[in-house]
């Protein structure tokens, strides 16, 4: 968000799956307590959203003006310097926690704007 950054990456229509840290920890504890599980369980919030909406919500919570978008080549260059894959940012990931939801796991943060609000408020509180 700093220095005018914080805009969409690439076209911005790729889906971002996310999970608030509280829900992540609670879901791991819940799975351990319910040891009758077998196979893969997706740990993600139930509402993935497009990258441009994800970034817009984050900018709104921080109170920043719209950030500059990053074109694909910029993401590729940044990934090279970070020694990672640009695909992690540019490829769409629409992960749904189907098994957790069907089993009745109670998510505390189901939408990104509310999760971002809590995370940023807590960060600001501890980093004054």
Task: Spell out the key features of this protein.
Rossmann fold, 2 strands, 3% strand, 128 residues, mainly alpha, globular
Q: How would you describe what is shown here?
A:
- This protein has 128 residues and is mainly alpha-helical.
- The chain has a single domain, classed as Rossmann fold (3-Layer(aba) Sandwich), CATH 3.40.50.720.
- It is 47% helix and 3% strand.
- It contains 6 helices and 2 strands.
- A two-stranded antiparallel ribbon has the order 1-2.
- Helix 2 runs parallel beside helix 6.
- The longest helix has 15 residues.
- The model has no long low-confidence stretch (mean pLDDT 91).
Number of separate domains:
1
Overall average residue pLDDT: 91
CATH superfamily descriptor: NAD(P)-binding Rossmann-like Domain
Instruction: List SSEs in N-to-C order.
Output: EHEHHHHH
What is the correct CATH architecture? 3-Layer(aba) Sandwich
**What oligomeric state is this?**
single chain
Instruction: Enumerate the strands of the largest sheet in spatial order, edge to edge or round the barrel.
Output: 1-2
Distance between the termini: 17 Å
Tell me the Rg in angstroms: 16 Å
Could you name the CATH topology? Rossmann fold
How many distinct helices? 6
CATH class category name: Alpha Beta
Q: Please mark out the parts with pLDDT under 50 across 5 or more consecutive residues, or reply none.
A: none
Summarize the structure.
With 128 residues, the protein is mainly alpha-helical. It is built from six helices and two strands; from the N terminus they run E-H-E-H-H-H-H-H.
